[in-house]
Amino acid sequence: MSTVVRDTKETQIRVTVSRGSGVATVDTTRPFLDHMLVTLARYSGLDVDVRARGDLPHHLIEDVAICVGAAIAAELPPTAARYADRTIPMDDALVQCAIDLGGRPYYRGKLPVAIWEHWMRSFADNAKATLHIRVLRGTDSHHIVEGAFKALGLCLRDAFVESGAVFSTKGSVALQVSE
Prior knowledge:
- The chain is of the alpha/beta class.
- It has one domain: 2-Layer Sandwich (Ribosomal Protein S5, domain 2), CATH 3.30.230.40.
- Helix content is 37%, strand content 31%.
- It has helices at residues 31-44, 57-75, 114-127, 141-159; strands at 2-7, 11-19, 24-27, 46-54, 83-90, 93-100, 106-108, 130-137.
- β7, α3 (114-127) and β8 (130-137) form a beta-alpha-beta unit.
- The model has no long low-confidence stretch (mean pLDDT 94).
């Protein structure tokens, strides 16, 4: 179980992520964010508990993404499969997600709503993930964004699978920071 707490003048966030069965307890005061986090938990198979308050929707959504990403990074087993690719059809939308949880943050995508594009980038940076999202089809932004969260969730499910080996030619990588 990994817990991340972020307290600023703008937001108060607490996120816990653990390997489980996809159970989510979410209360952010933003119904669509709650819906996306429940969806992410369900499709990833990770248990997620999010408690969040914030002054502005942008601050709240961004800081939740930061905390969820950091908790995912902390929870990743060293012998995880690491890579995954999923495509989700959702009504008019067709969205593809590819991920590498190998410690190199990078995001490339273009979601039709700026705040959810920002969520994915903040998530990828803090999960230390390479994340690509492609919208192959769709006009309904709700369906596109929800398809992206479902595809991300399924990618996390696949990437978290215990492989029994470290998936890197470098072997296990350790990075120590001292002050």
